Amino acid sequence: MTASPKEHTIKINETEPGTATLSVRTLKLSDFRNYASARLDLDARPVVLAGENGSGKTNLLEAVSLLGPGHGLRGRPYAELARKDGQGGFAIAASVRTRHGELDIGTGYTPRAGDDGTGRTVRIAGKDASAGALGDYVKQVFLIPAMDGLFTGPGSERRRFLDRLVVAIAPGLRTSLSRYERAMRQRNRLFQMREHGKSLFEGLEEQMAESGVAIAAARLDAVERLSALIDERRESEDQTPFPHAVLALHGTVEADLAERSATEAEDAFRILLEEGRERDRAASRTLEGPHRSDLLVVHGPKNAPAAICSSGEQKALLLGLVLAKAELIKTLEGIAPLVLLDEVAAHLDGVRREALFAEILRLKVQAWMTGTDKELFSPLGQSAQILDVNRGIISA
Ligand SMILES: Nc1ncnc2c1ncn2[C@@H]1O[C@H](COP(=O)(O)OP(=O)(O)O)[C@@H](O)[C@H]1O
Ligand SMILES: [Mg+2]
C-alpha cells in the first residue's frame, strides 16, 4: 500500500455546515485496470474525463468509487481490477478533502494463495481499517450505464440503490444489514442440512426480526426524506427539467411498520418467520422479509410507473433521483458527496445537459463526468477541471 507516511492531523473545517464539499485532491493509481501508474492533482471543482472508448475513463471513476465503502461502482471482484500485465494486485492512494480536513486514504488488493479475491486492504489516515469504515468519511452517489435497466430489472438492484443511500445517511445500518444477511444465510443452511432443531431456528429468527425491523425503519425514513426533498424542489422556483419521482417502498416489514410500533413489528416478523418455516424449508430459502423489499418509482409528471416509460424518460428520472440523493446527503451530512456520472452527458439533449451542469454547480459537488465528446462539456468553462484520457494517460 502506498498510503502517505506523513502523520494525519484532523483539522475541523471552519465552513458552515452544509457548505463543505467532499473532494478528491490527489489520486494515485498503481496497476489499476489499464493504468500502470497514474497521478491526478485536483481542486474541488467538478472533473470531466474526456476520451475515446476504451481509454480508461470509467476505470478512473471506478478507482474513485473505491475510496468509499462497498465493492466499487462496477461491483467486480478485486482480482479483476489488477492490471493484466502487472503483479496481480493494485493500489490506490488518495488525499481527500473531507469535513474534517485533508485525509489520506489508501486501498488495494494483493492476491494471496487461497483467497477468493473479494477482500481489499484499506488504510485511513495511515491506519488499517475496514472498507465499511470509509463510509464515515467518503459519501458518494453514482450513475453508470449498467443502471439503465434499474426500473425494469430485478428488485435486488433497486434495493441496493436505496440501501446505498440508507447507509450513507445512517452508517450504523451497515451492521444491521450484515447481521440480517448472516442470520438468514445460516437459517437457509439449516434447511439445506435438514435441520429441525427448534431453538436453532428461534435464535436466528430473533436476530432476523431485530435487524430486519431496523433495516425497514431506516429505509422508510430514507424514502420519506428523499420524497420530502423531491416535493420541496418541485415547489421551489428553480425547478430542474428532470421529472420528479414518486417513491413507494414495498415490503412486508416496511408495510407493517407504517401501522405499528417497532416492537410490534418485530414480534410480527418473528412469528411470520416461525409460521413460514415449513414453506421456507420446501423452498430451501427465506421467502419473505426485507431482503425481498422493492423501491417502486413512478414518473411524477406522467403519473406512470417508471418501468413503462421510454428509455429517455427513465434516464432523466434516474438522473433526477441520483441528484436528489446527493442533495439529501449534503443536507443531512453537512458535506456535498462525490457524484460519479459515467457517460451521462451524451444521452441528454442540450437543455437537460445544461440543467445537469447548473444543478452540479448549485449543489457544489465534485462531480466526476465522463464522455467521448469534450465539446459537450464546454458550457462548464472554467467551473470544471477538464482532462483528456488517452490509453491510460491523463493530461490537462
Ligand atoms: N485488469 C485490466 N488490466 C488491463 N486493462 C484493463 C483491465 N480491465 C479493463 N481494462 C481495459 O481498460 C480499458 C479502458 O476501460 P474503460 O475505463 O472502461 O474505458 P472507457 O474510457 O471507455 O470508459 C479497456 O480497453 C479495458 O479492456
Ligand atoms: Mg466507459
UniProtKB/TrEMBL annotation:
Subcellular location: Cytoplasm
RecF/RecN/SMC N-terminal domain: residues covered: 24-386
InterPro entries: DNA-binding_RecF (IPR001238), DNA-binding_RecF_CS (IPR018078), P-loop_NTPase (IPR027417), RecF/RecN/SMC_N (IPR003395), RecF_2 (IPR042174)
A GO-annotated cellular component: cytoplasm
Coiled-coil segments on the chain, per record: none
Single GO biological process annotation from the record: DNA replication
UniProt keyword annotations, A-Z: ATP-binding, Cytoplasm, DNA damage, DNA repair, DNA replication, DNA-binding, Nucleotide-binding, SOS response
Any one Gene Ontology molecular-function term assigned to this protein's record: single-stranded DNA binding
One Pfam family per UniProt: SMC_N
Main location (coarse class): cytoplasm
Residues binding ATP: G51, E52, N53, G54, S55, G56, K57, T58
Domain of life: Bacteria
Family: Belongs to the RecF family.
Described purpose of this protein according to its UniProt entry: The RecF protein is involved in DNA metabolism; it is required for DNA replication and normal SOS inducibility. RecF binds preferentially to single-stranded, linear DNA. It also seems to bind ATP.
The protein, known as: DNA replication and repair protein RecF
UniProt source species: Methyloceanibacter caenitepidi
Gene that encodes it: recF
